[in-house]
Design brief:
Helices cover 15% and strands 53% of the residues. With 234 residues, it is mainly beta. Strand 11 and strand 12 form a beta hairpin. 32% of the residues are buried.
């Protein structure tokens, strides 16, 4: 495997999932992939976490090492001979630094935006907040102390165990690999969502996220690597 483009640790991941109509996601599926579902249910996930110990090509950039990220994503897969690559597609990603957003858009074609953000980590309470359109929004949880393995075939495994990313990059699809050990989860005891995420994601997605979530998860996280992306022909 070639040298990673990025190394970091992703820690304390809040993941909230909604079931949506596949018709809502099909126009967003990158060429060369297909929509992936859990038990024939299409899911979107709001994910908030700490991005720590960040290195780009082995170099730590001052002011860009530790920061929160919040993203909205869904799930696809790419079928190859003898291999099924299960991946994620990001609808929108939020980070607090303009440089981070610019590099991610340029290198990977991801829909990154720089906005004011904050994280409050006071185990067992975890809260991530950000401001869009002059409105402060947040997602927060209280979690139990137990660290649990992901059950085979569970919704947690489907949502948390993905090792590929796909993004439209001009007329092409860009594929990149993420590596990390299998994560552990902690039970979510209380979930606190903002009442309206439309300032961040627009009216249509705001209505989706005002609905009752299907599930909420918390992953402990781990060190990760992100490989350089490569374009697919379709």
């Amino acid at each position: 495997m070639e040298r990673p483009f990025l190394t970091a640790a992703w820690r304390n991941l809040i993941v909230v999932n909604w079931e949506v109509s596949p018709d809502l996601l099909l126009p967003l599926v990158p060429a060369g992939t297909m929509l992936d579902t859990f038990q024939d249910r299409a899911l979107v996930s709001l994910v908030a976490f700490q991005f720590l110990e960040t290195r780009v090509r082995g170099v730590a950039i001052p002011g860009h090492i530790n920061f929160p990220e919040v993203n909205l994503r869904f799930y696809v897969r790419r079928e190859l001979e003898g291999e099924s690559r299960r991946g994620v597609v990001f609808i929108k990603e939020l980070v607090p630094r303009w440089t981070i957003a610019t590099v991610a858009r340029t290198v990977y074609g991801e829909n990154y935006h720089a906005v004011p953000m904050a994280s409050e980590i006071n185990d067992p309470h975890f809260r991530y907040s950000w401001r869009c359109a002059r409105q402060r929004q947040h997602v927060a949880v209280e979690v139990g102390p137990e660290r649990l393995p992901l059950a085979e075939g569970s919704e947690e495994e489907f949502v948390l165990e993905h090792y590929w990313g796909y993004a439209r990059h001009g007329n092409l699809t860009r594929e990149y690999q993420v590596t990390h050990p299998r994560w552990e989860s902690r039970p979510v005891l209380n979930l606190d969502l903002h009442s309206d995420y439309s300032p961040t994601y627009g009216a249509d997605w705001g209505r989706v996220l005002q609905g009752e979530p299907r599930s909420a998860m918390f992953a402990v996280g781990s060190a990760i690597t992100v490989q350089p992306g490569r374009p697919l022909s379709g």
